[in-house]
Design goal:
Length: 277
């Protein structure tokens, strides 16, 4: 390798790392700003502050913690119920030979491609006569229908397609019913994919805002809606910055579990299912 080639290679490598650094900083800057501001209690941050403290976190009012707990319950319930609904459905569609499979696939994916604001307005108009607005069950149904079931269906179908169908056929040939095959053969092989799918749905619904904004209310106020309303009415108060930082901590923890601890292979149910079989 000539000196010119080495120089070109060095410049290319330097440009690559500069590009990665700039993009990473650009993506992380809003999160880092909120976290840094939460320890100063204002968005008007100083690069060299006189002091940093947890006073903003201690100022978080009780209604914020109630909304956070309410949101956690919603995210947990919606993720769990979405999987209960979708596991048998995705298995039936993936393993079935019905000519309606393609139609079902397209219908289930509609909530994921429609603008969320349209879904929110539609749910408001639909839920008002049923008195499901400003209620836990109304928001739960909205999360299951607009994000939970479509996401679960999308990922679980990919997981099932990665499982060797001959294992299920062998169980059927030995006299097992389709229910037994699903519960004793398919679902155990789907295990890692189910866990990751649950985590993805949980985090998506935990941070959901646009859809539930239209049907939330004083008696059913998720933390994202409460934060938005509070900031619009009163500005970026210290306690709202602190709660925003807490949500970032939760998101970073989720990223660590899924991407770092479990590893990228768990994000691909097909790969893991093949390895299991």
């Amino acid at each position: 390798m000539t000196g010119l080639d080495k120089l070109k290679r060095g410049i290319g490598k330097a440009m690559y790392w500069i590009y990665i650094t700039v993009i990473t900083f650009w993506l992380l800057f809003p999160c880092l700003l909120i976290i840094y501001a939460s320890f100063q209690g204002t968005l008007d941050v100083s690069l060299i502050p006189e002091s940093l403290s947890f006073s903003s976190y201690r100022q978080i009012p009780s209604n914020y913690w109630e909304s956070l707990w309410f949101t956690l319950m919603l995210a947990f319930s919606s993720a769990t119920l979405s999987l209960i609904i979708t596991i048998p459905a995705s298995w039936s569609i993936t393993r079935g030979n019905s000519g309606l499979n393609k139609l079902v696939n397209n219908i289930v994916m509609i909530p994921l491609v429609l603008p969320k604001i349209i879904l929110g307005i539609a749910l408001l108009l639909f839920f008002l006569p049923l008195r499901l607005t400003n209620s836990y069950y109304g928001i739960l149904l909205a999360l299951i229908g607009t994000t939970g079931v479509p996401m679960a269906y999308r990922y679980l179908c990919a997981v099932i397609e990665g499982i060797d169908e001959r294992l299920e056929q062998a169980a059927l040939s030995l006299g097992a019913s389709r229910t037994v095959v699903l519960t004793r053969v398919t679902i155990p092989l789907m295990g890692p994919g189910i866990i990751v799918t649950w985590l993805l749905i949980f985090m998506t619904n935990f941070m959901n805002f646009l859809v539930i904004y239209f049907i939330a209310g004083p008696r059913a106020n998720p933390i994202a809606v409460r934060l938005f309303s509070d900031v619009v009415e009163r500005g970026a108060m210290p306690h709202s910055l602190a709660m925003s930082a807490i949500l970032i901590y939760v998101a970073l923890g989720f990223y660590f579990i899924v991407s770092v601890w479990l590893g990228p292979k768990y994000l691909s149910g097909v790969v893991f299912a093949k390895r299991e079989t």
